[in-house]
C-alpha cells in the first residue's frame, strides 16, 4: 500500500546550512550532538503502582560514534532505547535528537524521523511473516513515499549489502535466525538513516550469526553511521567504542573501550 | 494472515445481505412487470360486474353464487343513452359440461356470451370467426373453442366446420380462439363459447349471468363508466341505497393495485430483512477488524517504528475493511444473479435483474466495509508504537 509519510514534497537538495537540523526530508544532519539526553526520567504506571524505569539520565552521543548501552535486565536500557528511537516519550527531562527537541514534534514528525533518521534492529527481528525478505526491507521505503519501481531496486541493493541477495524472495520462516536478523539490518539501512538503534540484536542468535550481525554493525559504524547497541552481554558490548553502563535507571559508568583505542 | 476463516465468515454475512437485496428488488420488479403486462393484456378500461354485494351488512350471497344479474341487465348497460361511457358489454353465463367430438370427449367450461366478448376480453381468433349477433338472436347451434379445448378434443385449429356435442345438442364450430398466454390459475384457453341465448335456454335453464364484463369508452372514462353502471343497475334492481346493492363492480386496475400492494408489503418486509442482514454483516466487519487490530498490535508497532504515520496505518486497515466489504458485495451480487436465474424454476414468480440494484448493492457493501472499518482503523492508528511493539 503506498503510504506517504508527509515527505511528498521532496524539494531538491538545498545547499548551505539550515537552522533546523531536522531537514524537511527527515534526515538528521548536524554538527551538534546526535543524541543529547538531559536529566531524562521515565515512570510506568500500572494500576496504582508507579515504576521508575529511568531515574535521571544525562548523556551525549556524537555523530559517528559506536556506543553500547549495557545493563542487566530491568536496568532500564530497553526503555532508554525506546526513548532514543522516538518510540516512547520521557516522563521528564529533555531529549534532543540532532539538536531538535523531540517533545516538540507531533506524530507525523516523529513518523518521519523514525522512517528517515533512525534504523531499528530488534531482538525479535520483527519481520512480517507474510512478506518475502525484500518486501520486508521495502517497508520503510513505502512509508517514505518512494516510487514503486525504485523501491524494489533499493530494497534488493540493501539485501545485497548484508549478503542476502539470493534470499530476496524467501519468507522469514524459510530463513535461519541469523539470516532473518540480517534482513532486519538490511531493512534498518534501506533509508540510509544516520542513527542505528540495535536492541539486543544478537540475543536470539547463535555465536557465529551473532558475530555476523555485530560485524555488520561495525561496518555501518565505519561507514559513518551512529550506532547504538543495547545489550546485557559484556562481550557483545566490547565490539563498540564506548560503553555506557546502566543500572537501576541510572548511568553507572561511561568509558571508551579497548576497541576504540585500537581504532585510533 | 491467520484469520482467513473469520474473514470468510464476515464476507459471508455481507454476501447473504447483498444477495437478498438483489433478489428482493428483482422479485418486486418482476412482480411489477408481470402486473403491468397483465393489466395491459386485460385492458385497464375493464369493469367486472358480479352478483352479490360488497356490503357486509345483512345476509348476502357469496361471491358468484347469487343470481341477481340477468342478460337483460347487460343489454341495458350496453345502451348508449343511459350509459354513454360504456363502449361494450359482454355478459357470461357459465356452466361446466362434457363436450364430445367424434370419439373424444372433454369436460370444460361452457360460457354463453355475446358478440362483444372478443373485444371486451381483448381476445383474437386463430381460425374462423366469432359467432354473430344473428347467431345470438336466433339461439343458433354454433360454438367457438379455446385453443386448449380444441387440442384436447383432437381438433386443433382445423376445427372450423366440425361438430361437437354438448348435452346431446350438436354444435357447429365457427372459430377457434388464439391462445391468451394466460397468467394465473384460471386457464383462459380451456373453454367453449356459445351464444348466451343458447346457453341460457339449453344448458342453464335460467336467464341469469355470472359476470358482466363492461368496457369503458376509454381509460379516462372508467370512473364515469363505473358510476353509470352502478346507477343503471341500482335503478334496474330498484335499490335506493347503494349500500344495499346486490352486485359488485370491480375494475381490473383495482384488482391489480391490490395485488401490487401485497407485493409492495412483501418487498418492504424482505428489504427489511436484507437491511438487517447487511447491518449484521457490517458489525461483523467491525468485529473482525477490531480483533485484527488487537492481534496485530506488534505489526502495527513495527510499522510505526519503520515510519508509518497514523494516517498510513488508518489507510491500511480501511483498505482491508473495504476489501472485506467489496468481496462480500461482489460475491453476493454473483449469488444474487445466479439465484435470479435459478429460483424462477422452483417458484412461480419471475425475478427481474435490476442493474442499478446490483451496482448499488456493491456500493453499499463497500460503504459498509469502510463505514464499519473507521473505528477499528482509528484505534490502530492511535496505538502508541511502544505499547504495540511490546505486546506479545
Please tell me about this protein's structure.
The complex is a heterodimer of chains A (264) and B (392). Chain A is 32% helix and 25% strand. Chain A is of the alpha/beta class and 264 residues long. With 392 residues, chain B is an alpha+beta fold. Helices cover 52% and strands 18% of the residues of chain B. Chain B has helices at residues 4-42, 71-77, 117-120, 133-137, 147-152, 196-204, 222-236, 252-295, 297-305, 310-342, 355-382, 385-390, and strands at 46-51, 86-101, 104-113, 125-128, 142-145, 163-166, 169-177, 191-195, 211-216, 247-251. Chain B is elongated and about 105 Å long. The interface between A and B is medium-sized, with 27 and 22 residues.
Overview in brief:
The complex is a heterodimer of chains A (264) and B (392). Chain A is of the alpha/beta class and 264 residues long.
Which key terms come to mind for this protein?
heterodimer; A: 264 residues; alpha/beta; Rossmann fold; 6-stranded mixed beta sheet; 4-stranded antiparallel beta sheet; 25% strand; globular; disordered N terminus; B: 392 residues; 6-stranded mixed beta barrel; 18% strand
Q: Give the spatial strand order of the biggest sheet of chain A.
A: 6-7-8-3-9-10
The CATH homologous superfamily of the domain at 63-78 and 114-263 in chain A is named P-loop containing nucleotide triphosphate hydrolases
Which shape of chain B, going by the Cα principal axes?
Answer: elongated
Instruction: Summarize the helix and strand pattern of chain B as letters.
Output: HEHEEHEHEHEEEHEHEHHHHH
C-alpha Rg of chain B (nearest Å): 33 Å
Shape of chain A: globular
Strand content of chain A: 25-35%
Give the number of domains of chain B.
Answer: 2
Tell me the structural class of chain A. alpha/beta
Lateral strand order in the biggest sheet of chain B = 2-3-8-5-7-6
Please tell me the overall pLDDT of chain B. 83
SSE succession of chain A:
EEEHEEHEHHHEHEHEEH
Structural class of chain B: alpha+beta
Rounded to the nearest angstrom, the distance between the terminal CA atoms of chain B is: 16 Å
The helical percent of chain B reads 40-55%
Oligomer: heterodimer
Span between termini of chain A = 46 Å
Q: Rg of chain A to the nearest angstrom?
A: 18 Å
The biggest beta sheet of chain A reads:
6 strands, mixed
